[in-house]
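Following up on my earlier message about adenosine-5'-diphosphate. Here are the inputs again, as you asked, copied directly from the submission form:
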Amino acid sequence: MKYAQVLVDIKKLGTKTFSYLIPENLKDEIKVGQAVSIPFGRRKESLKAYIVGFSDYLEEGIKAKEIEEILESEPLFSSAYLKMLEWVANYYFCDIQDVLNTALPQKFFEKNVKKYRKPKIENKIYDVEKSKTDLKLSPAQQKIYDEIKHVNSKTSLLYGITGSGKTEIYFKLIEDVIKQGKNVIFMAPEIALVSQLTMRTIERFGADSVAIWHSSVTEAEKYETWKKLRNNEIRILFGARSAVFAPIQNLGLIIIDEEHDSSYKQSMPNPRYQAGDVAKKLCELYDAKLILGSATPTIESYYEAINTNSLFVLKERYNNALLPKVVVIDMREERFEKNYSIFSRTLVKNVEETIAKGEQVIFLINRRGFSSYTQCMECATVIQCPKCAIPLIYHADTNSYKCHYCNHVEYEPKCPKCGGKTLEHFGLGSQKVEIMAREKFPDYRIERLDSDSLSKKNEHIEVLKRFQEGEIDILIGTQMIAKGLDNKNVTLVGVINADLSFNLPDYRSSERGFSILTQVAGRSGRGDREGKVIFQTYNQDNIFLQNAQEQDFESFYKNEIELREMLDYPPYSKMIRIILSSKNEFRAEKSSLEIEAALSDYIKKLSLDETLLVLGPAPCVIERIKEEYRFNIIIKNKIGDLGHKTIIRFLKSINLPSDIKMVVDIDPSDIL
Ligand code: ADP
Ligand code: ZN
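Thanks, got it. Here's what our run produced:
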């Protein structure tokens, strides 16, 4: 081969590939994945680059310069790894550059390799040591463990109610894989959760064999971890969704805990990948196994598991701990009885009793900020973000109004319509609940945990630690605290407004609502005392709320799968969403009409119009973001791979005017 394609990071352009001549003296040593130095630009500045491929030819008119030297002879990734990235780029319809930008730590491209100093890896914050805790599985756990070990299918779903001991089963399976000399990727959705599960994992396997990988790990740490992975020094890579892009060697097993969690899907920017689907691909490439685990699996995963005989169910809590009792309180009734507080009388009584016993309480309020919208008292206009068509949310701690889409902030907004200054806040957010809880329960120790309170690094770990140690009586939080927390002293969970979880205009909102309520209920009574849960609602008749009250996933599934089938939603189709946007509303609409017409035509000519359903165009639920008007076309693909390839081929043929932006979201996690 004469030429090498190298990947290099050019300021402002991002990572790009270029061709370089391979000098005679390097011909025998050069390999994919090596770091080399190349001359770049008119001034022939030396840059660090990575070999990603070879060829004998150059495109016409290009004159290649020579590679200078090999900087690191040990390759930092393999060609199989590049194949996986290529699959991601093709499936998610994006540039390989975007995928590389996501996958490779930025540190890869720092010029001076010699000056590079090893960072201190901060495993210390977890402050745990390996303790020899070889737990014996219960008979129920042992049975599931044996079955999963011997199942033929590559992917298994472990559906186990909260507290049933899924984690212990994962640990046994991990141990087995490590004994065979193979390695594991263990994924969990949120950092707040990662930290608790991280401690358990490190305790079990020792800090030396576990590496941590998520968005708040620094680039320098990631670079170090990358090298360790390449040298096969790590047994378990523990991380959030981006961990699927780490270059783990001898992969034997991937575990995705809380597989239903929407944070496994990257919705912005490209690549808009779903970590579970990428993991499936990885497992194919490496002949490894994939285990999905959840107390509230997605409808799609459950459906697939049933149909491939790979569903494993744990119905009892470990040690027969009782599932908490869930009580539903009708808040309309409270109003009727002249209680206008956000706390029902039942909730207040239970809080007092619980804390009097020295036990702890969680309040869930599934919205951050102070309130859900602010209204002008003179003309009733709702104050919206001027750039995005959604209400601004009041934040009491900074006395400001924030847009939760674009982060636009206003300090003293006036009504845009009448100029009125008398504004009133309606609806509930976590901050308001915190303030009202402090008023109602002045003697208790109360803390809030949501993404606003996470600004300081590691602060959430501190709060969680204090909560675990019993120094907080009531922990208030958003969905963040619904998951994973294992505090045996929590015996009461209050959901301040259960309806909030169900009312997003999205086909997955019942699934999300059911899941969050069931998950948060599972935080109560995890020790040997029975837990209690209180759902406060204005809509007692909601069937999904009733399913959540009974913590009955099977009934929920039966109700929901019927709707999905009727409306051709996943798992009965795969969805592709095309969003067209422009500063000019008319142009955005015109362009989306044209594309829809061309697409429908294309599909009809192939006689696929009964199995590739095209909907729209329609204004998106959020019609405007950052001053861009948004329209979407939704495709329901009922024929899998063939349908996917057909749509991708069509998308590649589109020529867009320069004032129109197009985003393609494959398997979107929502359609807002
Ligand atoms: P899940 O992941 O399903 O929510 P966990 O694995 O966290 O459940 O288990 C719930 C609790 O029961 C944990 O505190 C865990 O330590 C304990 N537990 C589970 N299995 C065992 C076992 N075999 N022996 C002792 N304790 C166990
Ligand atoms: Zn905005």
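One observation from looking it over: Residues 585-605 form the longest helix (21 residues). Hope that helps, and feel free to reply on this thread.
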